[in-house]
Amino acid sequence: MGEVAAVVPAAGSGSRMETGIKKQFLPLAGVPVLGRALRIIEACRLVGSIVIVVSPGDETYCSAIAGELGLSKVAAIIPGGKERQDSVYNGLLALSASTGTVVIHDGARPLLSPKELEEVIKAAGEQGAATTAVPVKDTVKLAGKDGFVSRTLPRNRLWLTQTPQAFRYEIILKAHRRAREQNFTGTDDAGLVEHMGLPVKIVPGSYENIKITTPEDLVVAEAIIKARGQ
Predict the structure, then answer these.
(1) Interatomic CA distance for residues 197 and 113, integer angstroms
(2) In order of start, what are the domains of the chain with their CATH numbers?
């Protein structure tokens, strides 16, 4: 597995939150959304270092959050790019050459499970690439351009992909570089590995591992935290 490093993209604008504060910095039960995610990663015994990627100009603010939370594994806080994919690539380039495995987790997912974090890292060490995901609960329809149902997809084979996702460092770095060369944009990092024709192992995730995108998500997240007694 080698040394394990975490890349945490947190450069989103959070426009759908309709607040003056970016979603990753919003308070969630007294702790910034990003801070909650970072605390779980910091506590993971497998992770040796963390690189946080933020919007240009947010580095000092993010550093203050890391300092207030007493995070000792933060190796660098760097500016991101135009898109999430660019930001993750910047984070990968900032990692130590001795890195063996990389775990990537969105800073807007504050409720990740420590157990699932370890499991996805271990799966990447064994398989090369892994992602957390949860089975689809609802029936999914594929629609045509005319707005009518084209067909119903087999629900028993459909998964909703989450982060954390983990990869051998050389695999994910090559995937990002190839995507840049081909002007290919994926919706997640696992998709870039799939684009190279390599397999990605699914690690069962949690329905509580929600992404903070809208004000309603904060309400749900606070309820989960309360139920957990955190």
Answers:
(1) 29
(2) 3-132+160-228 (3.90.550.10)
| Whether the Cβ atoms of residue 71 and residue 34 lie closer than 8 Å to each other | no
Q: 3-state secondary structure string, 14-44?
A: CHHHCCCCCHHHCEECCEEHHHHHHHHHHHC
Identify the pLDDT of residue 18: 62
Q: Indicate the SS3 state at residue 114.
A: helix
CB atoms closer than 10 angstroms to residue 227: 9
Q: Which residues pair with 101 in a beta bridge?
A: 4, 168
Cα–Cα distance, 94 to 90 (Å, whole number): 6
- pLDDT category of residue 14 using cuts at 50, 70 and 90: low
Instruction: Extract the tokens encoding 170.
Output: 């050389």
Helices 59-68 and 33-43, axial angle in degrees (round to 10) = 60
pTM > 0.70: yes or no: yes
